[in-house]
Specification:
Layout: H1 8-11, H2 50-63, E1 69-70, H3 90-103, E2 106-113, H4 118-137, E3 141-151, E4 154-163, E5 166-175, E6 178-187, H5 188-191, H6 196-202
Antiparallel strand pairs: 1-2, 2-6, 3-4, 4-5, 5-6
Helix pairs in contact: 2-4, 3-6
């Protein structure tokens, strides 16, 4: 949905940067002829990857009381198409392949509720916004302001966040009987390896 979600958030090149580890100076001056004391090296920073993203999303949604589940960390390969099945078009098979490749560098979370009262939906939206606030508390920076757009007979709330070299897209849809919240985080450098045509397949 290019009109509501820009491609750069999905496929922008990772910003090159270095994590600087500040060293600590010690004690007094070293006397001539004295042995220079060994300075313990600072521990290397832990890379922020899928496990970290998954932990952030799980913690933020749990703290908000928003039930849901994250997708497995390992990708599920697409099923082998049945040559005798005419419904499995080349485009569908290509989309399945892109989805499987994207799973390598993505973390997904979703929560779906059945039809409920207006009060139930108001509470679900409140919890969704609380989950977004929880992400901010865990270091995710808003890269696109939260916005609400009409969808069918309902609305969709969207937000985008960045943390280190990951982009996260959050949505809460209320339309007809549908009430669903989703979050998808993708590693920028990995997403940048996909072509425009391949990303278009994911929007079908």
């Amino acid at each position: 949905m290019r009109t509501t979600m820009t491609r750069p958030a999905w496929a922008a090149a990772a910003v090159a940067g270095a994590i600087l580890v500040a060293g600590c100076g010690g004690g007094g001056a070293v006397q001539p002829g004295a042995e220079t004391p060994a300075v313990p090296s600072a521990p290397a920073p832990t890379a922020f990857g899928k496990e970290g993203v998954r932990a952030d999303v799980a913690a933020a949604t749990a703290a908000a009381g928003l039930p849901g589940e994250t997708t497995p960390l390992s990708p599920t390969p697409p099923a082998s198409p049945d040559p005798a099945d005419p419904s499995a078009t080349d485009r569908e098979r290509a989309r399945d392949e892109v989805v499987a490749r994207m799973a390598v560098c993505s973390v997904g979370w979703s929560a779906a509720d059945g039809p409920g009262s207006a009060q139930d939906r108001a509470e679900a939206r409140k919890r969704f916004h609380a989950a977004l606030a929880g992400l901010v508390e865990r270091g995710w920076k808003e890269s696109r302001p939260v916005e609400e757009v009409p969808v069918g007979k309902g609305t969709m709330v969207m937000a985008q966040y960045k943390k280190q070299e990951w982009s996260l897209h959050a949505r809460h849809v209320e339309s007809g009987l549908l009430d669903m919240a989703t979050m998808t985080a993708t590693e920028d450098a990995c997403a940048n390896r996909f072509t425009d045509a391949e990303l278009d397949l994911l929007e079908d």
